[in-house]
Amino acid sequence: MAKQVIGIGTTANDGTGDPIRTAFDKTNDNFTELYDGAGVADDSVTFAKLSDRYTAKVEKSDTSGAVSIDWSAGTTFEFTASLTGALELDFTNFKQGQVIGIYGLTGEQTITLDSDAATSETFNKVGGVDYDGTGTNYLQVVCVDDTADAVFNYSVATYTSSTTP
Amino acid sequence: MKAIDINGQIKIYNRLPKSWDKVIGGFNLLSDNNLKSYGFYPVIIDDYDSRVEKLGDIYFDADNEVFKRNKENLTWDETLSELKARQIEVIKDEVRNELQKTDWYIVRNQELGTAIPEDITTQRQSLRDIADSVESEIEAKTTKKAVMSFDFPNLG
Fold this sequence. Notes:
The complex is a heterodimer. By secondary structure, chain A is mostly beta strands. Chain A has two domains: 1-43, no CATH class; 47-159, gp9 (Jelly Rolls, Sandwich), CATH 2.60.120. Chain A has two helices and nine strands; from the N terminus they run ααβββββββββ. In chain A, strand 8 (137-145) and strand 9 (149-158) form a beta hairpin. Chain B contains five helices and eight strands; from the N terminus they run βββαβββββαααα. A five-stranded mixed sheet of chain B has the order 2-1-4-7-6. The longest helix of chain B has 23 residues, at 118-140. The chains are: A mainly beta, B alpha+beta.
């Protein structure tokens, strides 16, 4: 159903607006549609309608130091240059269930994860692979708890371009 | 070599792990000072003579911020005389083994009358002299440690 707009006339009490009963009937119809879950039609949420945290790619040119990874700004983060010193990835604005991918990480340096969680953060490694700076690495992180004691699960591995995967 | 105390258990790492805690890679590249912030400290192990010493348990030396294993003196239940006998038997065994290598010259001489080469006779006497000399030196020792740390000659 298309949204029903209540006619309010041109000026107050000019007699051109909807009668009170008609107006509230339209109101009820609009609310009924919302409560029935029809407010968002099937397939109506397009990629473009999603916020950056689900769609955007963020480029990072940092090669060392503390680097903010704002989970609200993107879902994919590309490091565009080889690391020259120790790197700390500081996670902010993360949401439970959100997954981000960080790629282009290369360079034999120390990489540390951190966050702005109020109390603490735990990073659980999935699998047994460590960051290998001799190659180019892909780091995938999922936030499984975005409370004050935040929890993240991550996995990291090197990747290469392959035309015959 | 580094070590860390985890809930009262000291774990020694000959090679540091690449990841630790929030470090997902390159943990082994951290400086000693940075490693200390994670609880990893150098391990100092005394050089020791295994004949008369052993290494004690590892512990944390807070003053010097290192894990240490100090050498400790071995003790023996045997008496001084018994230890001397044990060490003398060692040299006698070695000399006996060396003599056996040329015993066939003696057997041939006994059976066939073939002359024993002079250098063989000299060598066998030299071995016996060494055994006698070592036995005298060991008998002259007055402490168990001196007996057990005796440096045997190389007969080979």
